[in-house]
Amino acid sequence: MELYAPMIGLIVVAAVFAVGSVFASSMLGPKRFNRVRLDSYECGIEPTPQPVGGGRIPIKYYLTAMTFIIFDIEIIFLYPWAVRFDHLGLFGFVAMVTFLFLITVPFIYEWRRGGLEWD
Amino acid sequence: MTAPSIEYAALLPMIIVLGAGVVGVLVEAFVPRRPRHAVQVGIALLALVAALVQVVRLRDTEIIGAVGSVAIDGPALFLQGTLLVMAIISVMFFAERRIESGGNAFAPAASSLPGSEDERVLVRDRVLQTEIYPLTMFSVGGMMLFPAANDLLVMFIALEVLSLPLYLLCGMARRRRLLSQEAAMKYFLLGAFASGFFLFGAAFVYGYAGSLEFAAIDAALAARVGQEGLLLAGVGLMAVGLLFKIGAVPFHAWTPDVYQGAPSQVTAFMAACTKIAAFGAMLRLFYVAFGGIRTDWQPMLWAVAIITMVVGIVVALTQTDVKRMLAYSSIAHAGFILTALVAVDEVAIAAILFYLAAYGLTTLGAFAVVTLVRDAGGEATHLSKWAGLGKRSPLLAATFGLFLLALAGIPLTSGFVGKLTVFAAAFQGGAMPLVIVGVVTSAVAAFFYVRVIVLMFFSDPAPEGPTVAVPSAWTVVGIGAAVVATIVLGILPGPLLELAEQAAVFVR
Amino acid sequence: MNPTSYLVLATLLFTIGAAGVLLRRNALVAFMSVELMLNAANLAFVTFARMHGNLDGQIVAFFVMVIAAAEVVVGLAIIVMIFRTRRSASVDDASLLKL
């Protein structure tokens, strides 16, 4: 049980901070209500009218999603290595560096070919 | 903890090929467009030749390396060598630029919309598709690992590494891009579906044996430890995945569409190499891991072999497109090879190794000939357009005729020796009904191959018939190698047969 | 904890996935069904790893997740390519004329 005490403490602190800051801002902040404030928030730009049924998602979305998936999932191999880092020793380290180099290669390719530019 | 030992020397051929793929990706990123094509072709060929040299150097190796997960032994090395030879010829076909007036057979950029302004500009500027070379290297690397895989996980990874680049390669044709893209999607969806079956089957086998390694699975089978139902379900599901890759009936639906839609050079590569890799993997899995329960899986493969031969031949008879005809012929050939696979002995392994080499080279040549017969729209693949080709271009028609005779298994060609060894192995293994079906279907097959030859030589050419493109040295040398191999293996099969017999022992 | 129920669940998921590929006409949905099949296999692997008390099955699950991601990317690339090509019918005609 003692092992869990710091975690529980952290959860309590996080909860107090989250609830507290919402509560504090509602207490301390100025209260002005107008159309802009009550409108849905879309990253600070004018909300775009959405067609019924959702409409088309731009192709860029899929390209970004693909990039995200492929580089994000590689992290999975870092987890077991990170957990047993001290036991795996030099072999594990060299293997992981090799692996990271290999996934950097497609990243470089994508960057050079302009896959990371939005337009 | 001590570091696991990895036998890098024995794995070197695969490391070279996959490394060349990685270097190829970096070339794509940094080398300017103009010299890029030459650099990529150079890297690809250099790596393949270097890997082949390494395979020859390793010829007598018999080890299970990389902590039990990869077996480098006779069959693995024989198949890796065969694959590398086929891959070298395929890359030579990919490098052909004369028949598309400066371009290669691939869309300049796979991402450009067909018929768009983008595409027109790219074609006008003669931008060359170079990403195919790294993709091919990755695929070849996976193919080399597939027959060497000695545990379920590595086998699955190899399956995916060989498949994923192939899906993309199929969708990159320069002409008839919609057809090509549809072929890619069909291949992808069905391929992923089949690998799902393979993986779920692997899970069941692991559940039965408690281990992924083939040797441990074999031991568990001998001890009869687990639940029989689990094992049989696993074997069946894994067989589905592998039978799909070799294009056996009833898992063949993708073959004609994909062979037709993909660029013919890719079809050649795929028809030859995927079959070699998949049969290699199937041999090892069923002989080394599941050899102990052969009486359980033999009936299943018997049935598959029979319907594969019959359906392949019967449907091939009705085809009017050259590429589809060759696709159904490849299905039938998968059936012929399966007849030997059910025999489970070393004679069968040797027969299959020889057959794969002979068939692969012939089929590479046949598809390469298809790339040369063209009209205004690209390749003229409809059979009616091939009428009278022998009068217009006797050399090309004779070459194609030779390949067809080899596929039919006429004496003095490699196909005859291959069929003979395969049927002999099946006969020795007691699969007499399979041999009978095989011989009958071969006779029927000979009819439709000869029909095409008659069409080429004895009918009048159509008035607006196709022209025969004059290829550069790349294609000429590639087709020449296939012709020489088809004849030499037909007249003097001894050395290669001997090599196959020596190689036909799996390390356990 | 009875491992059999997890295997039953895995088999059910696999069957749903396989049926989805065969019955649905939308490429994206069929593709999602394939992913469901792979994840069903993962569940089976992890369950068997637990039953046998070794880690092999869990390692397989790791690799399968990565392979599935690679497959997603290749599959999405192919599907997006086709959707882009097909969206405007005129493009389709033009490319057919060029043949």
Question: How does the SSE layout of this entry go?
Answer:
The complex is a heterotrimer of chains A (119), B (508) and C (99).
Chain A: H1 5-28, H2 35-38, H3 59-73, H4 78-83, H5 85-112
Chain B: H1 8-30, H2 33-57, E1 63-65, E2 70-72, H3 74-94, H4 117-124, H5 132-145, H6 152-170, H7 177-209, H8 214-223, H9 228-246, H10 254-261, H11 264-289, H12 294-317, H13 322-341, H14 346-370, E3 373-375, E4 378-379, H15 389-392, H16 394-408, H17 414-428, H18 432-458, E5 467-468, H19 473-491, H20 494-503
Antiparallel strand pairs in B: 1-2, 3-4, 3-5
Helix pairs in contact in B: 1-2, 1-5, 2-3, 3-5, 3-11, 3-14, 3-19, 3-20, 5-6, 5-11, 6-7, 6-11, 7-8, 7-9, 7-10, 9-11, 10-11, 10-13, 11-13, 11-14, 12-13, 12-18, 13-14, 13-17, 13-18, 14-16, 14-17, 14-19, 14-20, 16-18, 17-18, 17-19
Chain C: H1 3-23, H2 27-52, H3 56-87, H4 89-98
Helix pairs in contact in C: 1-2, 2-3
- The helix tally of chain B amounts to 20
Range of strand content of chain B: under 5%
- Shape field of chain C: elongated
Query: What is the number of helical segments of chain C per DSSP (H or I, 4+ residues)?
Result: 4
Largest inter-chain contact set: B-C, 41 and 46 residues
Helix share, percent of chain B: over 70%
Indicate the structural class of chain B.
Answer: mainly alpha
Q: Give a count of the beta strands of chain C, DSSP E runs of length 2 or more.
A: 0
Give the CA-CA distance, first to last residue of chain C: 63 Å
In total, the number of strands of chain B is 5
Mean pLDDT of chain C: 83
Widest beta sheet: strand line-up of chain B: 4-3-5
Beta fraction of the residues of chain C? Answer: under 5%
How would a crystallographer describe the biggest sheet of chain B?
3 strands, antiparallel
Which runs of chain C of at least 5 residues are low in confidence (pLDDT < 50)?
88-99
What is the residue-mean pLDDT of chain B, rounded to a whole number?
92
Task: Name the helix and strand elements of chain C from N-terminus to C-terminus, one letter apiece.
Answer: HHHH
Radius of gyration of chain C: 19 Å
